């Protein structure tokens, strides 16, 4: 059995950064199933107690969707109340030129996997009227240095709007766009934000604002300083 609690929640990319902060925030109140590309024994100590874990590498979009559905079935869940498709990656591009490999990986991991997973998870979400949340980025409007990343997040925004109108109340769909956040993502991407990093939000605060936005089921929203300064990390609906 996966922990105890009221809602059955899946979070992808939950062994690090924002996803892990969200999992820690929700653990104890809800039953959690987390996923990532690292084997369980490498990250088990990081995960909240009682959370289940599925190995799902999103560089194979279809394979990752099948792994999620198989893992959910394997622990005996027949529904999901929330799916938070958070896993993502990026690569710093020199002069705005991404390598072919970086383009393919970024689009597969950030967008292709999200499309395949959303479609595969639909029946499980529909059973409980569960909410599907995509984690985009403020970069979806365009951002220097990360063109393929920005394109993948813009794609997620369009995907969320399309599914929201298609699935209606059966499965509410939303896309949340965090601003710069203190995680290891920038190091992994080969990008050094320098002194700007001091201005990045803490992942715990972003996770708190994200949880409230998920509970609200609103179609989209930005998770950034503007929201934080009006108390967004401490107010809002509780998931
Ligand atoms: N940090 C920011 O400033 C920021 C701003 C806007 C939006 N976001 C978005 O927020 C989400 C979380 O990012 P983060 O900052 O928390 O980054 P992070 O700390 O690097 O966490 C990203 C998660 O995604 C996983 N992941 C990466 N590639 C994967 C793959 N091929 N298959 C499965 N999982 C994979 C990572 O696993 P590994 O640990 O194995 O790498 C990790 O668990 C991402 O979608 C990101 O684009 C972040």
UniProtKB/TrEMBL annotation:
Alphabetized UniProt keyword annotations: Oxidoreductase
CDD domains: SDR_c (cd05233)
Record keyword Oxidoreductase present: yes
Family assignment from sequence similarity: Belongs to the short-chain dehydrogenases/reductases (SDR) family.
Highest taxon in the source lineage: Bacteria
Protein name, per record: SDR family oxidoreductase
Alphabetized SUPFAM superfamilies for the sequence: NAD(P)-binding Rossmann-fold domains
Classification via Gene3D superfamilies: NAD(P)-binding Rossmann-like Domain (3.40.50.720)
PANTHER family: 3-OXOACYL-[ACYL-CARRIER-PROTEIN] REDUCTASE, SHORT-CHAIN DEHYDROGENASES/REDUCTASES FAMILY MEMBER
């Amino acid at each position: 059995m996966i922990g105890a609690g009221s809602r059955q929640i899946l979070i992808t990319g939950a062994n690090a950064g924002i996803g892990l902060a969200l999992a820690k925030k929700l653990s104890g109140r809800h039953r959690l199933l987390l996923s990532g590309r690292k084997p369980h024994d490498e990250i088990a100590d990081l995960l909240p107690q009682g959370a289940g874990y599925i190995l799902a590498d999103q560089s194979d979009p279809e394979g990752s969707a099948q792994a999620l559905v198989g893992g959910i079935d394997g622990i005996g869940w027949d529904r999901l109340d929330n799916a938070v498709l958070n896993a993502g990656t990026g690569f710093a591009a020199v002069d705005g030129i991404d390598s072919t490999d970086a383009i393919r990986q970024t689009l597969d991991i950030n967008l292709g996997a999200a499309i395949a997973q959303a479609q595969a998870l639909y029946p499980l979400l529909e059973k409980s009227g569960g909410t599907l949340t995509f984690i985009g980025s403020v970069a979806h409007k365009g951002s220097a240095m990360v063109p393929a990343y920005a394109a993948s997040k813009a794609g997620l925004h369009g995907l969320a709007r399309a599914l929201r109108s298609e699935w209606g109340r059966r499965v509410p769909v939303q896309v949340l766009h965090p601003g710069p956040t203190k995680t290891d993502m920038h190091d992994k991407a080969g990008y050094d934000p320098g002194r700007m990093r001091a201005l990045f939000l803490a992942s715990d605060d972003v996770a708190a604002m994200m949880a409230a936005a998920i509970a609200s089921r609103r179609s989209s929203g930005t998770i950034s300083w503007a929201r934080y300064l009006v108390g967004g990390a401490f107010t809002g609906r509780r998931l």
